[in-house]
Input
Amino acid sequence: MQYVILKKVNFDDFITALAAQEKVVGPVARGYDNFSFQEVKSGKEISIKYIPTILPPKKYFMPQREKLIEFDKSQNKFEAVLEYDKVVIFGIHTCDLAGIQCLNMVFSDKPKDINYLVRKNKLLIIGLECNVYCDQYASCKVVDNHLPNGGYDLFFTELPDSFIVHVNTLRGDELIEKTRLFNPAEKIHLDQLEEVRKKKREIFKDEVKIGHHELSKLFDRAYDSKVWEDLDKRCVACGNCTNVCPSCYCFDILDNMNFDFNTGDRSRGWDSCQNEPFAKVATGENFRKTRGARQRHRYFRKFKYPVERYSRYFCTGCGRCTRTCMAKISLKETINALVDEQK
Amino acid sequence: MSKPKVAFFDFACCEGCQLQMANFGEVLLDILNLVDIVTFREVMSEKSEIYDIAIIEGSITTAHDTERIKNIRAKAKVVIAYGSCATIGGINGMKNKFDLEEIKKYVYRDGAKQIETLPTRAVHQVVKVDYFINCCPVYPPEILKVLKCVIAGIPYAVPDYAVCVECKLNENVCMYDKGITCLGPVTKAGCNSWCINNGNICYGCRGMVTNPAKNGQLDILARHKIPLDWITNKLDMYNKPRELDEQK
Output
C-alpha cells in the first residue's frame, strides 16, 4: 500500500499541470444543485464537494451514442470501428466506482464487448472519498459502497490541509511522478485518514429497514407485491431513473444509411426498460405493458438478477434514480414498503 | 428506375417547415439525386399534377381543404404529414377551444360572414398518412431520417417515449429543478430535446406520447403546485385536436 500527500494549496496546480498534457474531466457545478462531469483546464473549475452528477461517469466508458461498424454495400465491406478518447477522470465517488465495476463484469462476460474493454483501458480513474453523506437520497451503506473498494488508479481523501492519495496502479504511480507535486504520507496523515474512516463508520448506517445480506432475499418474495401497483399509478415512464443509473447498460442498435444508399454505419445508443416500446415485439405484443411491471423489472435488475449472475448488487446506492424521478418514486421508500409488506 | 416525384402542399400553416427544407444547403443536392421535386412553391415556379410522394404542411380547417387533401391522397402513393400543424393540428387547433362562430367574429369582426371554417384537424384525421415528421418547425436530422425510410420503402416509427429520455442523455439540468414547467414528460421524443438544449422549455409540439400516465402526471402537477387548467392551456397550444383521436 502506498499513500502520498497533495497539499490543498497545490490542488489547482495539479489539475492545471495534468490538463496541459491530457484531457481531464471532473465534477463541475451546473447550478440548481446539479453537477456534471466535464472537461476542465484547472482545479478551480472542479467542485470537490458535489452530489452525484446528472449522468454518472459511465458516459466515458459507454457513450450515449457510439459507432460500431462502417459499411459499404457496393464493396461488400463491413469494418468494425473503435472510437475512444484518452481521458483522466478526476473525482469519482465510491458509488460510481462500484458502477464501473458492475459494467466491467457485464462487458467482460461472454461475448466480450471489445469496444467497451478497449475504451476502458484508455481511461485513468481518480476516485474521491465522500467523508459525509451527499444528501438524504443516497443509500451507499446498505449496498456496501460507502468505503473505497478498489476499481481506481488513484483515490483521494480530503484531510484538514491536504489530500491523502492511495496509489493503486502503476499508471496511477506514473501520473504522480509526472506532476511532482506529491510527497510521501507521514504517520500524522495516516492517523487523520483513520479518523475520517472511523467517523464514517459512525455516520453511515443502513439506510433502509433491512441489512445488506437480507436485501436479495427480500426480492425473492417481491414479484407479486402490491408495491408495484402503487408505482404503476405514480410512474410516468420518463425513463430518468434508468438513464442516470451507473449500472444500467441496455442499448439499442441502429443502422444509418447515407444518401448514396451504399455506405453507412451501425451505432448503438442507450436504451431504457422504462420506455413504452422497449419490450414491444414485431407482432405488437408488449411484454411489459404496464409502468408498474417496468418499475419492478428495474428493481429486480438491481437487487435480484445480477446477484444470481454476478454475485453482487447492481444498485450502487448513488441515489440518482430517486433524485431525478419526476414522480418522486424513492428507492429507499420502495424497499421499506416491501419490508413492511413482508413482515 | 426513374426517380420518385415529390410535391409539397400547404394547408393552414406558416410554411416555415418547408423553409427548413429549403434551408438544408448542401444536403439538398444529395436529396435531389434521389428524387425529382415537381411542386414546391416556396422555391420554384413549376407545378405538376403528377407526383408519387406528397409532403403536406398545415392542418385541415375548411371544407375546401378537406376536398383538396382527399384529391392529393388519391393521386399520391405516399403521403407525409410534415410539421406540427399537419401531424397534430398544431397551433391552429387552439380555435377548437371556442365556439366556431364566436371565435370567427372575434378574429375577423365584420368580415366574419365571408369566412367559412371547420374545427382544425390533423391530416391523419381526414386521410390516411404513411409517414409523420413531427415538430414545429420540423427537426432537420429527423427529416433526413424519414426521407431515407420513404425512399427505401421501410416504415419510420416516431419515438413513443418522453422528450426527457433524450434530454437526460444530453445531460441538461431539468427545467423542474429550475422551477420551470416543461412539457417534456408527456411529449414524444425524436427532436433530441432541441429546445431544452438551447435553454427553452418543451412546448409539446411533437404531440403527446400514446400512453401518457394521467394519474402520475397529476401527482407531479400537485407537487409543483401547478394548476391543472394552466398546464392544459399550455398543452392545448399545440395539442387541442388530439381530442378528435380520443373520440375515435
